[in-house]
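Tutorial, part two.
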Amino acid sequence: MRVSRMIHVLDAPDLHAESAFWAGLLDGTVDADDDWHSVIVDGEWRLGIQFAPNHVAPEWPGGPQQQQVHLDVWVDDFSAAHDRAISLGARLLKQADDPATSGEVFQVYADPAGHPFCLCRGPLTQ
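Running the prediction step on this input gives:
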């Protein structure tokens, strides 16, 4: 089986807020339809946002509405990425123990629709 494309899709009750957040964080643009927005980065479709009027945001880390998936976003400038995410509407859910360390850092946020994601820095392992 050949996979020609795989896109992560997030549900959101406010397509404009969600797609603007991710396009802003990823330095992308939004291609908007009525009930679907695509986030395009460097000419490639990177993320889909689907209108879901009854979306219930997960309560991280252990609420009754559990997260089912999250995105890890690896960045070169952790401080600048944090400032950008917050300015675009992210909420900090769990600060890294020591974000200034030279080791791996994972800091947990929620996007405008409540989806948890991590800003990460450090050695990229596969």
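The first strand starts at residue 8 and ends at 12. In part three we will examine how such features are distributed along the chain.
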